[in-house]
């Protein structure tokens, strides 16, 4: 095993092509990108520029059409071949936390039950002790027994963040996590991601339309038509 380098994710000439009938759309086109361990990166760009496609490929939720993806010095995808589905499932559970624009909370489960939902599939040692801390960190300790329908939009998003963090991921991938929230709530979530990055060393990759949120990151990557726009 090689020692862990400074980069937790390395993408080399990634392409993700969608077919629409006879037409091909390169949603991600020749993207090379290295994400440093413990860094905070924002991905910006107009609608349709490939942000979601890229973050899904980086997060091993989607296979690239070509290119190379290396996670923690381990090749996930290269030469048109990826890890087996079983190995990918393990990577998704162990390495990543995902936050989506839609919260995807289960309406019939309480806040606490939603947060511990990933434990149904897998539980990292020590993760359980951290639940109280996580709920406090996200200001949800008084909401643990509430149903999602009883929460504000910002609170629901914080539940989704708690759920993404409960299994102690190394990398948090957030696709427009504040898309449904007002300015004040968005900035609150942005600050929180910044704190998690600074205090806990969590690697954060944030897709956002909001320039103020993007500015919280140490580095901003701009996409245009599936390509990284030169700074
Ligand atoms: N499943 C799909 N099938 C075909 N084309 C797709 C699919 N998903 C995305 N695309 C196309 O790929 C391109 C990039 O889409 P993507 O969703 O990654 O953009 P985005 O930057 O996330 O946009 P937004 O800001 O609106 O969320 C778009 O042209 C889109 O129409
Ligand atoms: Mg998108």
| Low-confidence spans | none
The shape is globular
The Cα radius of gyration reads 18 Å
Distance between the termini: 35 Å
Proportion of residues in β-strands: 25-35%
- Which hetero ligands occur in this complex? adenosine-5'-triphosphate, magnesium ion
Number of helices: 7
Spatial strand order of the main sheet: 7-8-9-3-10-11
Give me the strand/helix succession: EEEHEEEHEHHHEHEHEE
Mean pLDDT: 91
Q: Fraction of residues in helices?
A: 25-40%
Largest sheet: 6 strands, mixed
Structural class computed from helices and strand pairing: alpha/beta
Number of strands: 11
Structural summary, described in words:
This protein is α/β, with parallel strands linked by helices and 231 residues long. The protein has 7 helices and 11 strands. It has helices at residues 51-58, 85-94, 111-115, 131-137, 153-165, 183-200, 211-214; strands spanning 7-20, 23-36, 40-44, 66-71, 74-78, 81-82, 96-99, 171-175, 203-207, 219-224, 227-228. The strands form 2 sheets. A 6-stranded mixed beta sheet has the order 7-8-9-3-10-11, with helices on both faces. Strands 2-1-4-5-6 form a 5-stranded antiparallel beta sheet. The model has no long low-confidence stretch (mean pLDDT 91). Adenosine-5'-triphosphate (ATP) binds next to strand 1, strand 2 and helix 1.
